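TASK: fixed-backbone design
INPUT:
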């Protein structure tokens, strides 16, 4: 069985981290032959983020050196997966697409895929701007 590591930097995300972790389709990924390791990299939260993450089955790595890049460095250093997926703890990345992404990686023999969480948002803003509803 292969392993998928999901690395999620987090700083005071108690309102989103539980739903983010619940969105990871662990059963589907297991049926595809992947064990799933979920690493939440806590970057100094003062709320219940690490507690909630542990309750939801994630391994929490404490990264005391602040910064998004430092959180990712700690996550990558602790990840054991054959594939590493990343995303934020604020519900802006749809972890539900992981099975499709893994199929694409395997079918196309890819080493890396980058997703874009802003395309839909940018199109919506463009339509709003074009309609004259907001101005800058």
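OUTPUT:
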């Amino acid at each position: 069985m292969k392993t998928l590591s999901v690395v999620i930097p987090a700083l005071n995300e108690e309102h989103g981290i539980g739903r983010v972790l619940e969105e990871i389709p662990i059963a589907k990924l297991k049926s595809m032959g992947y064990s799933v390791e979920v690493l939440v990299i806590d970057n100094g939260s003062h709320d219940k983020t690490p507690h909630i993450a542990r309750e939801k089955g994630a391994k929490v790595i404490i990264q005391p050196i602040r910064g998004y890049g430092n959180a990712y460095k700690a996550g990558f250093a602790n990840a054991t997966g054959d594939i590493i997926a990343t995303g934020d703890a604020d519900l802006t990345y749809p972890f539900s697409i992981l099975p499709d992404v893994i199929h694409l990686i395997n079918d196309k023999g890819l080493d890396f895929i980058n997703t874009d969480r802003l395309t839909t948002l940018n199109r919506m803003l463009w339509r709003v701007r074009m309609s004259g509803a907001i101005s800058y």
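COMMENT: Strands lie at 2-10, 34-42, 59-62, 83-86.
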